[in-house]
Design brief:
The chain is of the alpha/beta class. The chain has 9 helices and 17 strands. Helix 8 crosses helix 9. The protein is globular, with a radius of gyration of 20 Å. It starts with 26 loop residues before the first strand and ends in a 6-residue tail after the last strand.
Length: 349
């Protein structure tokens, strides 16, 4: 299978730079064996689900991980760094610009009084050693850092104060992601209350979304792509909640591809088990889903691994029809855009 099989034309005007207000006003495309023609929004979600269905959301919290500063020995060299993950005492991997002008030993003076020394490179990333412990660094990032908006938004504007709320889900609890689990951005306390009133359950997993979400697929053949590993956890409590929902006849609906990937990772041995560790699961057409019946997910980049996941979930022909319909009807794409509720053919509504 070729990466080009997952390409499509997307008018730039359909890329959302801000979320819908209120969040549940975002449009929703329902696919349950076919495209539902009704003009739905996220606010309609309680009526589209069944009592005893279980929604599984990702409770990761986004770090304001983008920093701006200057190289100490040459202050005219401005530096932008996106912190990725800690790799040792006070050491983090990062994407940086201009990475080639940062040499080992260079000190970078970031906004907020944050100082780091460049230790070297690791493939397309650099390694920074900070002047403070990780806990103190995370606290400093809350004021000095910017939210790590995706490149297609940053190309138009920098993150601002509004993004600190917009780019964080209401479920956010465990700090560690450098990108939001964007399907969760559509939920508000009022929508959650409405879903619970319908007898719909909630469970949580944690997947700290990492660098791979920003990286394009650079190979021609799908099988040649290597996924970046991300850390996740599925607790025994969530495993029990899924088993109980199944026993009641309810369906498991992943809120976002991150939740789906982690649940299917935890079931690689056959049955769902508690899980804590890294996953590099790559879901493409032909994948055998064991846990997830439904998926709430935004509209993804052409030729991306997430679009391949959608094709695996509903079938390649259905995925192409869904995206052609979304473009034709002017749905808003990507992180701040509209969303879709997809069911596998084995679990129709």
């Amino acid at each position: 299978m070729l990466v080009s099989d997952f390409d499509f034309e997307l008018p730039p005007a359909l890329i959302a730079e801000r979320p819908a207000v209120p969040r549940e006003a975002a449009r929703l495309l329902l696919h349950a064996g076919g495209i539902d023609p009704r003009p739905l929004t996220v606010a309609d979600l309680p009526g589209l689900l069944r009592p005893d269905d279980l929604l599984v959301f990702n409770d990761t919290r986004v770090i304001p991980a983008r920093l701006y500063g200057r190289r100490e020995r040459d202050p005219e060299v401005r530096v932008e760094a996106l912190l990725l993950k800690p790799v040792g005492e006070r050491r983090w991997t990062a994407m940086a610009r201009p990475a080639k002008r940062l040499k080992p030993g260079d000190r970078v003076l970031f906004d907020g009084g944050i100082v780091a020394e460049t230790l070297g490179r690791d493939d397309d990333q650099i390694i920074l050693r900070f002047d403070r412990e990780d806990g103190d660094l995370l606290q400093a990032l809350e004021t000095a850092g910017s939210m790590p908006l995706p490149p297609y938004i940053v190309a138009q504007r920098k993150a601002d104060a509004q993004d600190r709320a917009d780019y964080q889900t209401v479920f956010a609890e465990k700090t560690g992601a450098i990108a939001a689990p964007t399907a969760g951005l559509h939920f508000t306390p009022a929508l959650i209350a409405g879903l619970k009133a319908q007898g719909i359950g909630f469970a949580r997993v944690t997947l700290h979304v990492g660098a791979g979400t920003f990286l394009p697929v650079k190979v021609d053949r799908v099988a040649d792509h290597k996924m970046h590993a991300e850390w996740g956890e599925v607790t025994a409590e969530t495993v029990a909640a899924i088993a109980a929902a199944r026993a009641r006849g309810g369906r498991v609906i992943a809120i976002g591809t991150t939740s789906l990937r982690l649940l299917e990772s935890a079931a690689r041995g056959g049955a769902l088990q508690p899980f804590a560790g890294d996953t590099d699961i790559f879901i493409t057409p032909g994948f055998e889903f064991r846990i997830v019946d439904g998926l709430l997910t935004n509209f993804h980049l052409p030729k991306s691994t997430l679009l391949m996941l959608v094709a695996a979930f509903v079938g390649l022909d259905a995925q192409r029809a869904i995206y052609a319909h979304a473009v034709e009807k002017g749905f808003r794409f990507y992180s701040y855009g509209d969303t879709s509720l997809l069911f596998r053919q084995a679990s129709p509504t």
